[in-house]
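Hi there. Long-time user, first ticket. I'm pasting a complex I've been working with (about 532 residues overall). I'd like to know whether the download I got is complete or cut off, because the file seemed smaller than I expected. Thanks.
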Amino acid sequence: MWFRVNPRLPTPIYQQVVDGFKEAIVKGFVKQGDRIPSVRELATLMTLNHNTVAKAYQQLEREHVFEIIQGRGTFVAEFKPPSDSDRDRRLAKIVEMMQQIYIEGHYVQLSEDDLMSLFRETIRKWETGGKDV
Amino acid sequence: MWFRVNPRLPTPIYQQVVDGFKEAIVKGFVKQGDRIPSVRELATLMTLNHNTVAKAYQQLEREHVFEIIQGRGTFVAEFKPPSDSDRDRRLAKIVEMMQQIYIEGHYVQLSEDDLMSLFRETIRKWETGGKDV
Amino acid sequence: MWFRVNPRLPTPIYQQVVDGFKEAIVKGFVKQGDRIPSVRELATLMTLNHNTVAKAYQQLEREHVFEIIQGRGTFVAEFKPPSDSDRDRRLAKIVEMMQQIYIEGHYVQLSEDDLMSLFRETIRKWETGGKDV
Amino acid sequence: MWFRVNPRLPTPIYQQVVDGFKEAIVKGFVKQGDRIPSVRELATLMTLNHNTVAKAYQQLEREHVFEIIQGRGTFVAEFKPPSDSDRDRRLAKIVEMMQQIYIEGHYVQLSEDDLMSLFRETIRKWETGGKDV
DNA sequence: GTGGTCTAGACCACC
DNA sequence: GTGGTCTAGACCACC
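Hi, the file is complete. Here it is re-exported in full:
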């Protein structure tokens, strides 16, 4: 698989699957139109319950990341620019995380510029690099 | 109070209290050595369950943000450079959030540079601005 | 063909075929007594699984829209006033959809009158217009 | 309860619960800010599994019909005008149902005007009347 | 084969 | 008390 899941984290497993696929797509491991393992296949591969995987796939479909075709399988959707409300919701989420970063940064004595460099570096490493930074 | 709490948000209330205090400290509303209202005081002031407040205070103490001195009260801890393990934990958290930002950014078509600008702007606004950006 | 089918929609394909034929008949593209392609012909023409097409034809026959004459082929049935039970079933379906419309309308703030106008307009456009409104 | 559920219908149970609540709200049986029975309560009352009820509540929250407050309960959300994309999606659904009605109407020999009258009548009866028309 | 639903029952976080 | 998640296993519709 393109990612791993850790049941001991507080993040729900199905959410980790959702995040894992988004990451795999951004990194280019999976591409538009690609067929995704079936719900049951992935469940077996990752030793998860099929309901958990199905929940993740359904959420990814709601987010327009996957396209589920009944009786045929699940595919990576073609990219569509998000609706305004979708965009707003995502931007708000991003801004909130940026504030959190700034606050956490304060406690490890990272200045704004330090954080900017770390950000650049993180993206670099991560785009080229492996699954886990 | 220096912050507000919204029970309708999915973020747990105790977490909002934790974040609220950290934010107040970074913004300078509360300073090192300042006395913080007791659990029961704050619970009354903000009409929260005192268990919820207690949980927040415990977490803030665990993170060395608060210092609880038995019989005297709760204070904002003096700043100490974090232990290595603390620092590592916080850095890991920051890096993870940065990755999330990059992924979310992908879906609203924000490039690395767009994100950098947004980051700078967010911090600017937030530092000068009020509690809610 | 007189209609198209989209496997990406949540509506089952066989149902889309059923709806497509009904629509074609109401619009007059196909008339009473017209011969309809055989299951296998249509399956080839539209690149569908023949089981899917067969299921649609069976349902259309059950609803007295098609008439399958053994050894001769499938035809658009001549119009017969429906039996009482048929009529009741269809009316119940119609009433239920009308309620659904009213409820959905509520959430987009459409009044009864708005819905009536929309209904009139929809029929107008649809009767004159093409396959997809 | 304000509605009943029929496990033998093809419509999934959780969807029937969703529709049932929307109907109850439009009819005014339940009002903005009202507390809804807890997931487990409703499950017991209607002899359903709590997972099924939870799924319905979650969908209603996604549609901004319910508001779920962690640890406190579930409430009828205040009405907010939908986003443009939400509105478009709902309108498309309405238009599609109207076309279906027109087609079905054809088979019971109901003219456009007949359908209009039936629509008016349906809403009248249903708004004043009981749970099942 | 594909995904979707449902029940039963356990466990958890939050207030 | 509240809702959320997860597994196990059954059953179903669709292609």
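A couple of notes from our side: The interface with chain D takes residues 7-8, 10, 12 of chain B (CB under 8 Å). DSSP finds five helices and three strands in chain B.
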